[in-house]
Design goal:
CATH class: Mainly Beta
Number of strands: 8
Largest sheet: 6 strands, antiparallel
CATH architecture: Sandwich
Radius of gyration: 19 Å
Number of domains: 1
Shape: globular
CATH superfamily: Galactose-binding domain-like
Distance between the termini: 40 Å
Structural class: mainly beta
Mean pLDDT: 87
CATH topology: Jelly Rolls
Helix content: 10-25%
């Protein structure tokens, strides 16, 4: 009986340990100390902070269709990261969802031009989460630039979520 319990305990421990390695921490989220420190435009109540909050129903919108739109984030300290996720889909008009974006990082002083371009991608038209894996890097500041939307005549620009991950499972 004791041996059976020990095997069960070991099995459960290994599952928990294995699953822990599969879960990445969103190190830019407001819950992790991330902040939005600059944005081109925002339309209340869809403020820039909504991009990194824990509320999946909130989103950011610019209020005007001006390009590029830029949102800059900071973390409390320089950290290692190896991936991102971006979700454009939100309650707003799908024609206003972000399409072409670029993500850059800087440390320690973004205002001094230390930006390094990490990835430039096109988000899917369905607006669903796009996960991007990169080679591990370090940074404290992140810049999300939006160059277009999925509509030909947008009235504003919107995006639901931006996450930076400390680690990601290789696919």
């Amino acid at each position: 009986m004791l041996l059976r319990i020990s095997k069960l305990f070991l099995f459960c421990f290994l599952i928990i340990l294995f699953n822990k390695n599969l879960i990445a921490e969103d190190i830019i989220s407001a819950n992790s100390g991330g902040k939005v420190i600059h944005w081109t435009l925002e339309k209340v109540p869809n403020i820039a902070h909504n991009i990194i909050d824990a509320n999946k129903d909130s989103y950011w919108s610019s209020g005007k269709a001006v390009f590029p739109q830029v949102v800059t984030f900071s973390m409390p300290t320089n950290k290692r990261f190896e991936g991102f996720s971006v979700t454009a889909k939100n309650a707003g008009n799908p024609l206003n969802w972000a399409k072409n974006i670029r993500i850059s990082s800087a440390d320690p002083f973004p205002h001094m031009g230390g930006w390094v371009e990490l990835v430039e991608i096109e988000l899917p038209a369905d607006g669903l989460q796009q996960v991007i894996k990169i080679e591990p890097a370090r940074g404290r500041y992140f810049r999300l630039e939006i160059f277009s939307t999925h509509g030909s005549s947008p009235t504003e620009v919107s995006i639901s979520n931006f996450s930076v991950y400390d680690t990601m499972e290789k696919k």
